[in-house]
Write a structure and sequence with these properties.
The chain is an all-alpha fold. It folds into two domains: 60 residues, no CATH class; 95 residues, no CATH class. Helices cover 73% and strands 0% of the residues. It is built from eight helices and no strands. The longest helix is centred in the last third of the chain and has 30 residues. The N terminus is likely disordered.
């Protein structure tokens, strides 16, 4: 069992943080000293400990310092329950337009390349404006940046994968069997 350090301070947020640091460092040194770990394992232990300290420090923040302004200010971005059906329809409209653009451009480029990946890559570059417009529309409607990024990435990946399969089948069907 790990012994507690000799002194723990009483009072205030600063002493709480100091106590947390002392306990954690004491535990960590004891843990490393008594166990045989590789340097990589020690780095993982240190990182997880520092992450835990960050969480415990953020939990101990003084609410008086933060103020009550956060409750009064409106949110900068939409919450998930504030997204309307019109927003979803707009997003699906752009996703469909991107799919159609990718298919049209891919079939237009199919004779220029031997590799289907090059065909789809060229088409993706030509249709990137659709995703840029989608990003702008979502930004104008105050979607959170992480939500925009993930939706656009998912739309792009799905469309590219679907189009690549179609182009691969089309290129395979155009090849004549060698005799």
């Amino acid at each position: 069992m790990i012994d507690k350090p000799d002194r723990l301070f009483d009072g205030g947020i600063d002493s709480l943080i100091y106590d947390q640091l002392r306990l954690t460092s004491h535990w960590l040194l004891h843990y490393i000293k008594n166990m045989k770990y590789t340097p990589m394992r020690i780095n993982k232990i240190l990182l997880s400990t520092l992450f835990g300290l960050g969480i415990s420090f953020s939990c101990c923040a003084d609410p008086a310092e933060a103020g009550d302004n956060a409750a009064e200010q409106p949110s900068e971005y939409l919450d998930s329950n504030e997204i309307t059906e019109d927003d979803y329809n707009m997003m699906m409209d752009y996703a469909t337009r991107y799919d159609q653009c990718l298919n049209e451009k891919s079939f237009a480029e199919i004779n220029n390349y031997n590799d289907p990946r090059h065909v789809v890559d060229t088409a993706m570059k030509q249709c990137a404006f659709e995703l840029e417009e989608l990003n702008q529309q979502m930004s104008d409607r105050k979607f959170p940046p992480i939500y925009r990024q993930k939706f656009i990435q998912r739309t792009s990946n799905r469309a590219a994968g679907d189009t690549l399969r179609i182009i691969m089948m089309e290129m395979a069907s155009r090849q004549t069997p060698s005799e």
